[in-house]
Amino acid sequence: MAQVCRLGLLLALLLPVVGASVPGTVVRLNRAMLSYVSEMGKAPLEWALKVTVPHFLDWSREELHPTRIQIVNIHVPRLQLNFIDGFGVRLFAAANFTFKVFRVPAPLELILPVILMADARVAQGSIGTPVVSISSCFSFFNNAIVVDGSHSTAPALLVLVQQHIKAVLQNKLCVSVSNLVQGLNVHLGTLIGLKPVGPESQIRYFMINAPAITNDYISLDINAVLFLLGKPIVLPVNATPFILPELVGTKGAMATVGLSQDLFDSALLLLQKSGALNLDITGQLKSDDNRLNTSVLGQIIPEVARQFPEPMPVVLKVRLGATPTAILHTDKATLQLQPFMEVLAVASNSAFNSLFSLNVSVNLSLQLSVSKVKLQGTTSVLGEVQLTVASSNVGFINVDQVQAVVGNVFEEPLLDHLNALLDMGLALPNMVNLYYVTPEVFVREGYVVISSGLVYQH
Ligand SMILES: *[C@@H]1O[C@H](CO)[C@@H](O)[C@H](O)[C@H]1NC(C)=O
Ligand SMILES: *[C@@H]1O[C@H](CO)[C@@H](O)[C@H](O)[C@H]1NC(C)=O
Ligand SMILES: *[C@@H]1O[C@H](CO)[C@@H](O)[C@H](O)[C@H]1NC(C)=O
Ligand SMILES: *[C@@H]1O[C@H](CO)[C@@H](O)[C@H](O)[C@H]1NC(C)=O
């Protein structure tokens, strides 16, 4: 808990710095998610309801006999959760409590059917996490069924024992439900944990306003802060908050997650600023990987042939000075890259000589997928790689000829490099031990939708 509070303080300090930018996401948790939670929640609820019952003070035989009472089993065959429009979640549970009453001479076993009803408000906590709180809670008791030892029990005593048990449970069960919800809140708090984006860069998600709750879903507006080397990066201001349209994604999915164009722009900016997108394509003579050498370039650039009579290796330094752009159209995601490429030759004294430099423009098709908690991508080149000469130390350069030689050498390592990076993936909003399963990704005009199941795994 202290950890969460400290994180919150830190976050509160950071927020003003980056408050203007909104790399928005929307996480909508649908009814199917509540069904899953009600299945998953039975065992923890049974566990939480296992309260201690003080001794029953039996005065029936003219003197005091403290009788020990123990809950030996709790069975929750029914747990139902439903959304309450504009408020939160309603819980209904039917439970059977089995008690053992340690009476002399023979113990008594009885089953008490209990109904629990509670309303929980879901709100935004001060540190940007969802917070659940019980606003009302009631327990109702049926008559106990004596399983064992009924012949030896006076009906009057049975009534008193039941009264004792009901009075205790009346006080304790709702407290237990509240405690269970407090535990849930600690778990929900892990939403704001730092998650990796790429080398040396991280992302932290947090809620920006109160959740929107309907009868069908709870919708959380979540923004991100991106960190490079532990420092938040300031993103270009975008004044329009991201709104996820209704009825997107697959009907009946547990979660519908909307990722804005802003989130993609921000993640790409982070990758570019971190230098992770840059690469060097080294050359070696007589290698199949890099077919480029000065004798090949010499055939199309006479000055290279003059300076390098002996074949020497050529190195390509690819730098991304401009941030790549992601373009999201229905069913089609594209990445536009404009790297700057310097072509260097290794001289006989092992120094690098800059021959010329090129402005490159390349469009890549981007396929998105989700694995566990990450959005991943793979790219392939769309159309031609466009080259323009930015500078030359070797006189006139015929771009078309250079394109034929350099374009091929550059494409494959670039794709390998990008795909390795995009495979590391962007962490999606999630909580500890909660994973996306059977996700589907849809590209829409200006945003991406993920429809997914969720699974909680220790
Ligand atoms: C509780 O136990 C009784 C007796 O075994 C059974 O008839 C009843 O269906 C149970 N109720 C629930 C909610 O499981
Ligand atoms: C230079 O490249 C050409 C074309 O790939 C190749 O045939 C030749 O063997 C290379 N020369 C050396 C010395 O690697
Ligand atoms: C990339 O796509 C844009 C928009 O479709 C287009 O204007 C541009 O010419 C393309 N560039 C390349 C290198 O294909
Ligand atoms: C190459 O790109 C740089 C940076 O984008 C730009 O300033 C320069 O004008 C470009 N040069 C050519 C020849 O296109």
TrEMBL record:
Domain Lipid-binding serum glycoprotein C-terminal: residue ranges? 249-452
**Any Pfam family hit:** LBP_BPI_CETP
The record's Gene3D superfamilies line, in alphabetical order, gives: Bactericidal permeability-increasing protein, domain 1, Bactericidal permeability-increasing protein, domain 2
Signal is among the record's keywords: yes
Q: Which SUPFAM superfamilies match?
A: Bactericidal permeability-increasing protein, BPI
Record's keyword annotation contains DNA-binding: no
Q: Where is the signal peptide?
A: 1-20
Give GO MF terms, alphabetically.
lipid binding
Cite the entry's keywords alphabetically.
Signal
Identify its protein family.
Belongs to the BPI/LBP/Plunc superfamily. BPI/LBP family.
Q: What is this protein called?
A: BPI fold containing family B member 2
Originating organism: Molossus molossus
Organism lineage: Eukaryota, Metazoa, Chordata, Craniata, Vertebrata
